[in-house]
Amino acid sequence: MLSLYVPGHSVVHRAPAGVKLGLLAALGVGLFLTERPAVVGGALVVALAVGLGAARLPWRALAAQVRPVWLWLAVLFVFHLLVTDLRTGTVAVLRLLALLVAAAVVTATTRVTALVAVVEWLASPLRVFGVRPARIGLVIAMTLRFIPLVAERAARIREAQAARGADRLRWGMAVPLLVQVLRMAATVGEALDARGADDAPARRPRRRPAVAS
Amino acid sequence: MRWRRRPEADAETPAVALGSGIELRDVGHDYGDRTVLADVSLTLTERRVGVIGANGSGKSTFARLLNGLVVPTSGTVLVDGLDTRTQARAVRRRVGFVFQDPDAQIVHPTVAEDLAFGPHNQGVPAEEIERRVEEMLDRYGLAGHRDHPAHLLSGGQKQLLAIAGVLAMRPQRIVFDEPTTLLDLANTRRVARVIEELEQDVVVVTHHLDLLAGFDRVLVVEDGRVAADGAPGETVPWYVARMD
Questions:
Q1: Sequence-ordered strand ranges (E) for B80-144
Q2: Over the stretch A128-158, which tens digit does the pLDDT of each residue have?
Q3: Predicted local distance difference test score (pLDDT) of residue B14
């Protein structure tokens, strides 16, 4: 999600984020209600068709999402071959692949803003308990924004340690990283103030929010 | 991208005009036992004001006082008659702030989303937000990066995005806290041109003295006090001589 959005104007890109997330959730539930290889395999084919055909995503965008879990899928398949049977193993792997591809299609065709808006809408009933959904959305967006930044700072500290002879990864880097992150957090807090984040209203919105991508 | 309007928030800056400019009256500020600013009294009405001084002299605290990010321990800061202590939100709508490190200022994952953040908080209608985002993307050469992750931009592009994010809020004044410190020469010059072309009144805290050419007024902050105040032709050479 950090940089998975692939800009486009396809019907999948234009579909409301809430609908896409709803369909993804339904697919997730549905795939675990069936044990038929044809149905699960069909779901994978449909997910690929939507991604590569309707959304016109480059195959690399989807492959990049599947690549990190290839090994796990292979291990799962072998495990089932040893413990259960070929059919169960095939269904298990196809099921996860179908979900993975479908999730990749959703994240590649939906802006973070739209996904966050859905989360805010889902959290809106919590207002009665004093929760501000806009804050939840902002926290999610900021988490996505700052993960790579913290990783970058950690890499710099590792480089600085290596430059002074500490070749191995040491836990000692946690302290300077924590100090840097806390310092940055103070400035980010100021930036949020300066950019009006605290102007968020306490009152309930008058209409249901738009959640289209 | 669609941004929901926050109907409760005012889209316009409050129509309060009790005075004009930024006025500091006997302002002092302490961090615990340490006094970082003391007895500062002045009024800023010029279009372009520079602030220079050594590290730790109190420049950044001075800058933060101007838009209410820091409230003075003693004395009063008034922006167009609005007290930063009691009317901080209204003040921050009038005075934008650009930080030294753009990474700390950019809070959304992608370029366009971050540009929309400030106006969204101000309750600007979605169509107007979209218009401002497009305008800023075009003006600062970021149109090709609309949906790109902000962390993949170059340092110069990040600083331009930070400035554009503030401008999208349509402030009347902008305070820059060392906006070029982390930039190379080419990007420093680019940011300098951007500041020069701004319609808004600007206050620029900087170590890059070249940035102050053509400014109307330059303050030299030294040990928490304004040690010199005048035209750049007078104050900058005085400051340079002090550093020798």
A1: 82-83, 95-98
A2: 988 888 888 888 889 888 988 898 889 888 8
A3: 43
Question: How many separate helices (H) and strands (E) can be counted in chain B?
Answer: 8, 10
Size of interface A-B (CB pairs under 8 A): 123
Rounded to a whole number, what is the distance in Å from the CA of B241 to chain A's nearest CA? 33
Nearest-by-Cβ selection for A205 from B7, B148, B152 = B7
| pTM, entire model | 0.78
Mind listing the pLDDT tens digit for each residue in B159-211?
999 999 999 999 999 999 999 988 889 889 999 999 999 999 999 999 999 99
Q: How many CA within 13 A on the CB side of residue B1?
A: 26
Chain B residues with CB-CB distance to A145 below 8 A: 106-109, 150-151
Chain A residues near residue B165 by CB distance under 8 angstroms: 195
Write out chain B residues lying below 8 Å of A199, CB-based.
6, 9, 89, 121-123
Decide if B164 contacts B195 (C-beta within 8 A). Answer: no
Q: What interface predicted TM-score (ipTM) does this complex get? A: 0.81
**Residue ranges covered by each domain of chain B:** 22-109+172-243
Nearest neighbour of A194 by CB, restricted to B69, B109, B126? B69
Q: At which residue do the structure tokens 């965008």 appear?
A: A61
B22-109+172-243: in CATH 3.40.50.300? yes
- Which distant-in-sequence residues (6+ apart) come within 8 Å of A162 by Cβ? none
